[in-house]
């Protein structure tokens, strides 16, 4: 191989690696062909134990996870994976479309949730979003004395880094990006949870309370009739 050819080979970017976990061969084949055509490197798992073993042993930018498998509940796999690797991005792809299951998975740390049947174009778009977030995971966001570490899912309000759940992290990032402005509950539900909720849902209030208990009760202000705002 010539020096020029070797140089070109070395300069080629590494393809993002994705682990596809599904016990339906047709789904695995359909999804994997589309991802390979889109330029991704793909591995497979068709059971919960092998999925967890591969995910923990490998280095994947994204795990696409089914919930219904013969040997395991995908939610258990998700919980254990997120416990072992808090930074692992996981896109749940499931036939379970009820809101409680979606909320449970997001609370367990899923990065996104897509129901079957699904549009291939939407799946590829969501995969792209997750991979862009992963590539930006080294970034630090600052707002006054508050520091948000995108890679470690940590926040420091001046007394040292505090680990956050993914939902706490996403909510806090949304408030930081709108520093000086109030953000309504409806906006937070749409951008952080990405699901249509009952207007009476209190998931935003619960998440805000957890952030206040971790980072200080003066960090987030309640703006009556308008939502929440990051304190100056």
Characterization of the model:
With 232 residues, this protein is an alpha/beta fold. The chain is 44% helix and 19% strand. The chain folds into 2 domains: 3-135, Response regulator (Rossmann fold), CATH 3.40.50; 140-230, Arc Repressor Mutant, subunit A, CATH 1.10.10. Strands 2-1-3-4-5 form a 5-stranded parallel sheet, sandwiched between helices. A 4-stranded antiparallel sheet has the order 6-7-8-9, with helices on one face. Helix 7 (166-177) packs across helix 9. It is elongated. The chain starts with a helix and ends with a strand. The model is unreliable at 1-13 (pLDDT under 50).
- Please count the helical segments: 9
Please provide the count of β strands. 11
- Tell me which CATH architecture of the largest domain applies here: 3-Layer(aba) Sandwich
| Helix fraction by DSSP (H/I, runs of at least 4) | 40-55%
Quickly name the level 1 CATH class of the largest domain.
Alpha Beta
């Amino acid at each position: 191989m010539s020096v020029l050819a070797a140089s070109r080979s070395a300069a080629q970017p590494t393809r993002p690696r994705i682990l596809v976990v599904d016990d339906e061969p047709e789904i695995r084949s359909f999804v994997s062909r589309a991802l390979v055509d889109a330029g991704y490197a793909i591995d497979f798992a068709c059971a919960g134990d092998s999925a967890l073993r591969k995910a923990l042993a490998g280095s994947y930018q994204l795990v696409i996870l089914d919930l219904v498998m013969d040997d395991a509940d995908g939610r258990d796999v998700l919980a254990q994976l997120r416990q072992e690797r808090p930074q692992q991005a996981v896109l749940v792809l499931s036939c379970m479309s009820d809101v409680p299951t979606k909320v449970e998975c997001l609370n367990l740390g899923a990065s996104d949730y897509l129901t079957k049947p699904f549009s291939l174009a939407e799946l590829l778009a969501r995969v792209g979003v997750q991979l862009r977030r992963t590539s930006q995971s080294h970034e630090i966001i600052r707002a006054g004395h508050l520091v948000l570490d995108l890679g470690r899912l940590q926040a420091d309000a001046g007394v040292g880094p505090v680990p956050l759940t993914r939902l706490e992290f996403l909510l806090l990032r949304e408030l930081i990006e709108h520093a000086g402005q109030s953000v309504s509950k409806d906006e937070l539900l749409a951008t952080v949870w990405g699901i249509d909720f009952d207007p009476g849902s209190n998931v935003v209030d619960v998440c805000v309370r957890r952030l206040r208990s971790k980072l200080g009760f003066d960090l987030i202000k309640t703006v009556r009739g308008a939502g929440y705002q990051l304190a100056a």
